[in-house]
Amino acid sequence: MYTYPQLFDFTKQVFLKIGSNERDAMLATKVLLSADLRGVDSHGIARLVGYVRLWEAGRINATPKVKTVHETPSTAVVDGDSGLGLVVAPQAMQIAIDKAKNVGTGWVSVKNSNHFGIAGCHAMMALENDMVGIAMTNASPLVAPTFSIERMLGTNPIAVAIPAASEPPFVADFATTTAANGKLEILQRKNQEAPKGWIQDANGNTSYNANELKNGGALLPLGGDRENGSHKGYCLGAIVDIFSAVFSGANYGPWVPPFVSFLPMPEHPVGEGIGHFFGAMRIDAFRPADEFKHHMDTWIKRFRAATPMEGYEKVLIPGDPEREMEAERLKNGWALLPPVVTDLKALAEKLEITESLF
Amino acid sequence: MYTYPQLFDFTKQVFLKIGSNERDAMLATKVLLSADLRGVDSHGIARLVGYVRLWEAGRINATPKVKTVHETPSTAVVDGDSGLGLVVAPQAMQIAIDKAKNVGTGWVSVKNSNHFGIAGCHAMMALENDMVGIAMTNASPLVAPTFSIERMLGTNPIAVAIPAASEPPFVADFATTTAANGKLEILQRKNQEAPKGWIQDANGNTSYNANELKNGGALLPLGGDRENGSHKGYCLGAIVDIFSAVFSGANYGPWVPPFVSFLPMPEHPVGEGIGHFFGAMRIDAFRPADEFKHHMDTWIKRFRAATPMEGYEKVLIPGDPEREMEAERLKNGWALLPPVVTDLKALAEKLEITESLF
Fold first, then answer.
1. How far apart are CA B117 and CA B33, in angstroms?
2. What is the tens place of the pLDDT at every residue in A210-224?
3. Which residue of A has its CA nearest to B318?
4. Is the pLDDT of residue A328 over 90?
5. Does the first or last residue of chain A, that is N or C, have fewer Cβ atoms within 10 Å of its Cβ?
């Protein structure tokens, strides 16, 4: 078991070693570990080695100058200057929040960035400002649109955070696929089959093989197949892609650069880096903040009190499981899988981190 | 077969008979029939009788004074004054468009409205202004959240319309459930079973009975079950509900009034009428409009050229099938189902429409 302060200190040292300044290293660490805290282990410290490899491959600028390149009172396009998405994203979200303070809402599309950790972390920045926060990003193409055998979209997540009064906030954060790639990785490690509706093989047939992506298969959009609405998941993934990259000038669709450094970059890029999209809406831009939050409390209480199926304790509010996990892990720490520890140990040696945890 | 001008004339007469002024009758007719034109027969003229019944039940104000009750430069809350959603929605969308002209984007939440036809029709108003349009609405509770046996949400659709240059626009318009209620009605009429993942029975078990809602069953959120991501469909439906109603002061969740006039109104309402949410984003608020539209063309062409599965001609772009249907029906007209014709005949008699088509 490792504690949050222990892992925070180690992770921050790694970002300092690759050249981030103190502020950026703090920010990147906070964002990266928010995934572990919320139980999204696939997007947290397990990916630290991947970020360092991108830096080694010359794809990460450790000292980015994040700047607005186009704007109106309620919008901006931000150039991430090839920085860590973990650092670019919170700065872009802050611009959205500042615009919302002025004119009610703020909407920021980002180009020339890299993977930004979990979307929910950025959306939640809005909460302390009594705003609704929205965050989305495109990602490397692993998903086949309905009727396609070609991988055209990333798992393109959407996060929406909504404040309440006495109830904890509503925080939705989900990939626009049946299952996120991280869930597939868990099955791969356990050598288990994937459920129907998660994956297709290279010819577009249903596959239960959790390793099918290595054989040219693809993840499926939310819905799974046409009969169960996969065209809706495809629409959602497409909207995220367009808002994140066609608005900003980033790469979209099959041109989005891969997260893993060993894969080649797509030829003939249509933009710069990967793209994100952020939104902030002041709740008092719609009605008095107290009134809104009172009704959110009513909404949350009523849904939590919905009659559950037999065998289930209660209906969950989006964000409930992650919040409970965060409280647990902040208190007691958490375990890392042996291959993750091995990776971090090697990383500590390579970067000559003294007094390393690993 | 009936032609568009024939059905337009008849429908407009109906709205005039219930007291709409000339402008509102035109608008309501245009919006209602856009559903038929786009092939969404369940939301078009087949529902005209339902709207009239709501008016007879005193739930529709035929001469609404739609007004803004709260605003900032980029947002507004609109009171629909119990008007037809078909008339309130385009006025609210126009406010979003006007705000976008001023500050880049406009976001309007609506209370005290009624059903607004198809969401796509309103989102598409943005296109001619070189804007991205967004429309959503809540609706009567027919959908059970993940783990719930209680119906808490409507089919809560989301529409997003995005302009391109030489390519036709991208127009997504979908219920946040596996299947819209209209699809279930088709199965009911054909006496066919529903696929797995569409419906659950009163105890939360999988049901194939297209009439299960009459026995206390529920529609399922997009994803179908937990393993296939129904919690994501539940999140989407919840976000639509909150943006449409908690922002505006409309009824939300199980308090949303039913569309059918014979069902009782929910007790202890938490707001006024049903709610909608509209957004408009100027594309040149992000980058020069020509540049954006050029890249949308590239996006659309690349996705349409994705390798299709064997047996499928091509990968579709959202909006393709509906646009083709519209061209077909504008040219050749379309048939109405016998029960719809019977309903319209009775309506013509009751409202004493002279020289009726029916």
1. 9
2. 999 999 999 999 999
3. A235
4. yes
5. N
Q: Which residues numbered 69-128 in A keep a CB inside 8 Å of some CB on B?
A: 70-75, 77, 102-105, 107, 109
Distance from the B295 Cα atom to the nearest Cα atom in chain A, whole angstroms: 6
Q: Is A278 on the interface with B (CB under 8 A)?
A: no
Question: Nearest CB to A309: which of B74, B149, B283?
Answer: B149
Fold of A64-166+181-285: Ribosomal Protein S8; Chain: A, domain 1 (3.30.1370)
Order across the sheet with A170-174: list the strands.
A67-72, A75-79, A105-113, A274-282, A131-137, A158-162, A170-174
Q: State how far residue B63 is from chain A, nearest Cα, in angstroms.
A: 25
Instruction: Find, among B250, B255, B325, the residue nearest to B88 by Cα.
Output: B250
Q: C-alpha angle B35/B41/B42, rounded to 5°?
A: 100
Is there a contact between B295 and A246 if contact means CB atoms under 8 Å apart? yes
B228 touches chain A (CB under 8 A): yes
Q: Which of B80, B82, B81 is nearest to B90 (CA)?
A: B80
Angle between helices A320-332 and A22-37 (to 10 degrees): 110
Mean pLDDT (10-residue bins), chain B, 358 residues: 97 98 98 97 94 96 98 98 98 98 98 98 98 98 97 98 98 96 84 94 96 94 96 98 98 95 91 98 98 98 97 96 98 95 96 88
Candidates 3.40.50.720, 3.40.50.80, 1.10.1530.10, 3.30.460.80; CATH matching A1-63+328-358: 1.10.1530.10
Residues of B in contact with A152 (CB under 8 A): 302-303, 306, 315
Looking at domain B1-62+319-358, its CATH class is mainly alpha
User: For A137, phi and psi rounded to 5 degrees?
Assistant: -150, 150
Domain ranges of chain B: 1-62+319-358, 64-178+220-285
Q: Which two tokens stand for residue A165?
A: 């009064």
pTM metric for this prediction: 0.98
Nearest alpha carbon to residue B92 among B134, B58, B53, B38: B134
Tokens encoding A30: 């906070």
Q: How many residues does chain B have?
A: 358
Q: Which residues of A touch B224 (CB under 8 A)?
A: 224, 228
> In this complex, is the C-beta atom of B314 within 8 Å of any C-beta atom belonging to chain A?
yes
Number of helical H runs and strand E runs in chain A:
10, 10
Q: Which residues of A70-83 are buried (b: 16+ CB within 10 A; e: fewer)?
A: bbbbbbbbbbbbbb
Q: CB-based contact (8 Å) between B162 and chain A?
A: yes
Contacts A–B by Cβ distance under 8 A: 254
Query: What does the DSSP assignment read for B94-131?
Result: HHHHHHHHHHSEEEEEEEEE---S-HHHHHGGGGGGTE
CA pair distance B354, A145, nearest whole angstrom: 50
CATH fold label, B64-178+220-285: Ribosomal Protein S8; Chain: A, domain 1 (3.30.1370)
B1-62+319-358 and B64-178+220-285 agree in CATH topology: no
Longest dimension (CA), chain B: 56
Best mutation target among B69, B103, B240, B296 (most A Cβ atoms within 10 Å) is B103
